[in-house]
Amino acid sequence: MAVDVLVGASCDVNLLYLQSFLINRALPVGFQVDYSRLSTSWCKFRIYYGLVLAITSPTLVCIAVVDRYLLSCCNANLRAYSSLKIAKFAIQIVIAFWMLENIPALIFYNINASSVCTYNRPEYTNYSSYVLSPILYGLAPILITSIFDLLTYKNMRQQIAPSSSRERRDAQMSSMIMLQIVLIVVSTLAAMIRNIYVGITLNNQRGPSHVIWENFLDK
User: Do you know which Gene3D superfamilies this protein is assigned to (predicted)?
Assistant: First the structure.
């Protein structure tokens, strides 16, 4: 099924993101080596790689939820759009789109005078604080997954209770998607608030309380 491929691809992306996160944390904490403070190339690539993975996974979940909705529709024309071929094509388009969309990170991120990998461009700050974090990374995945999952639930409630193995499998897949939606909502809201705060206060002079608060948010 197409939804299986989409959810599987999302899980693979999550594993890659977790792996990169652990590596980026293990080196500075365990070995006191942070290459993002030493190499401009690694600074740029680490941020770019993380941004692409971070947005690709929820996007694939959104498409999986839409696919699940199409599959639950009584209209045969709508169900026809739920196909393995379209799902594989959508995965390629999503990855290519987010790789292109996050190219500005490769341009604007640099190591500043304090040896911190960050950006200091007003246009990118505004884009990151008011478009990227709150909309693309925050509200859009939450709204899309919530709306289409409710529509799917409504369609399934109108149908006969599942009796065949395929229908039971569909119900299990819906439960898996619902759980992943909850996780996305929880993690997205926290990351969205953190990114908006960091972006807005990027050029502000930081006192001890601000530093403590930012260190807490980074944990």
Answer: Rhodopsin 7-helix transmembrane proteins
Helices vs strands, H then E, count in the chain: 9, 2
Structural domain spans, the chain: 2-218
* Alpha-carbon span 185 to 140, nearest angstrom: 11
Pick 2-218's CATH classification: 3.40.50.11440, 1.10.357.10, 2.130.10.10, 1.20.1070.10. Answer: 1.20.1070.10
At residue 32, φ and ψ (nearest 5 deg) are 55, 35
Q: What is the pLDDT of residue 219?
A: 47
Give the tokens for residue 89.
Answer: 């094509």
- Provide the percentage of residues in the chain whose pLDDT is more than 90: 14
* Cα–Cα distance for residue pair 44/21, rounded to 1 Å: 15
Give the Cα separation of 213 and 201 in Å (integer): 12
pTM here is 0.76
Quote the CA–CA distance of 63 and 86 in Å, as a whole number: 11
Q: How far apart are CA 45 and CA 47, in angstroms?
A: 5
pLDDT exceeds cutoff 50 at 126? yes
**DSSP strand E in the chain: where?**
110-111, 117-118
* Rounded-to-integer distance, Cα 22 and Cα 9, Å: 20
With vertex at residue 140, the alpha carbon angle to CA 136 and CA 142, rounded to the nearest 5 degrees, is 125
177-202 per-position pLDDT tens digit: 667 667 766 766 666 666 666 666 65
At position 139, the amino acid (one-letter code) is: L
